[in-house]
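Before the break, one more example. Copy the sequence into your notebook; we will annotate it together after we see the structure.
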Amino acid sequence: MIEVWVTLGATALLMLVLGVILLTGKGANLIAGFNTMSKEEKEKYDKAALCKFIGKLLLVTAALILLMGLGIQLGYETQAALAGTGVMTAVIIAAVIYANTGNRFKKKD
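Here is what the structure looks like once it is written out:
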């Protein structure tokens, strides 16, 4: 059981630290896809808003991982894994749809 907590705790801690870094509006190059854009393409985006959004997403993900660990600790291994995976998948799909519609993170001219 301790292995589960070490793994989940380390993962949640990593996401928490990265989430806090991104919430400050810094660390845009940690975002997949953004770091591969050309400098001209990067200038079209509001880095601070994008970082804050991804930072919030990482904090939610860290909380879900800890909740899954709590469910496992309480003896609901299968249910916690299925529910946590399902909720996390739904949150990530919703975040991808939100981020990629409406040009939310493009700079306003």
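The CA atoms of residues 42 and 64 lie 31 Å apart. Residues 47-73 form the longest helix (27 residues). Try to locate both features in your own notes.
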